[in-house]
Design goal:
This protein is an alpha+beta fold and 129 residues long. It has five helices and five strands; from the N terminus they run H-H-E-E-E-H-H-H-E-E. Strands 1, 2, 3, 4 and 5 form a five-stranded mixed sheet that branches.
Length: 129
């Protein structure tokens, strides 16, 4: 478990942001979590601590890379041995495709970005208060 998991309150949030941003290629809290990958800007949108019996917590980072244009969608190429298909899913259908914590994580991230509170800290997909 890294230092971000041992902090508390506002300090924990700052460490979470720094830890997430460092994993994203060198961005840091001073830049608001912004960075670039493949020419696209991104922001850490959610950090989700997954608790499980008999194992240490796992952490999932969710990044926002912005909206895809029609050209971006046309450029998507799948490696057939890794992924059989993909689809765009309306927000109201996400829980049908991503049940449990992954669906809650994907729904919480854009809300936090929109209201300026991101990255959102989650435990098993639920917002930590």
């Amino acid at each position: 478990m890294d230092g971000a998991a041992r902090g508390h309150g506002a300090q924990r949030g700052l460490r979470l942001r720094r830890g997430a941003d460092q994993r994203a290629g060198g961005a840091d809290a001073a830049t608001g979590g912004a960075g670039r990958v493949g020419g696209r800007g991104f922001h850490c949108a959610a950090v989700d601590w997954g608790q499980g019996a008999g194992r240490p917590p796992l952490v999932a980072y969710l990044y926002d890379g912005g909206a895809l244009t029609a050209d971006d969608l046309k450029a998507i190429r799948l490696q057939e041995e890794e992924l059989l298909s993909w689809r765009l899913v309306p927000r109201e259908e996400l829980a049908d495709h991503l049940p449990g914590a992954p669906g809650r994580r994907v729904l919480a991230a854009p809300d936090a970005l929109a209201d300026g509170t991101g990255p959102v800290e989650l435990e098993n997909g639920h917002r930590v208060v």
